[in-house]
């Protein structure tokens, strides 16, 4: 069963039109973001609104059907960040220059790694960090609710 347009729009509005993983703004994307299944259908997930999250194509493709990742700090496998059950700012923060997402909990670190949120394999050139730098210069990033830095 596919997700109907009304449900997709509800998911988009609920996410404030931001990818619920990397907080990229949908308004600067050339395509609409996808609706991601937090528990993938391939492992028993469903189309219930509480199992859906807005995801940019980049995060959606990297998340694939994974629900857990490895946290290098604790050396454990942990569940990935779940935007229906967790608050983004409790697991992530932005680097001072706004180019990198820093995981501050096991779930945050594992999600950053699993979704390659900072293009760790491509430190130069066409990377998400380069795009974020442009978005910062244009005044479009980081999202207002994320821009608070801890003291």
TrEMBL record:
<dbReference type="InterPro" id="IPR002711">
    <property type="entry name" value="HNH"/>
</dbReference>
<keyword id="KW-0255">Endonuclease</keyword>
<keyword id="KW-0540">Nuclease</keyword>
<dbReference type="InterPro" id="IPR003615">
    <property type="entry name" value="HNH_nuc"/>
</dbReference>
<protein>
    <submittedName>
        <fullName>HNH endonuclease</fullName>
    </submittedName>
</protein>
<keyword id="KW-0378">Hydrolase</keyword>
<feature type="domain" description="HNH nuclease">
    <location>
        <begin position="6"/>
        <end position="61"/>
    </location>
</feature>
<dbReference type="InterPro" id="IPR052892">
    <property type="entry name" value="NA-targeting_endonuclease"/>
</dbReference>
<dbReference type="GO" id="GO:0004519">
    <property type="term" value="F:endonuclease activity"/>
</dbReference>
<dbReference type="Pfam" id="PF01844">
    <property type="entry name" value="HNH"/>
</dbReference>
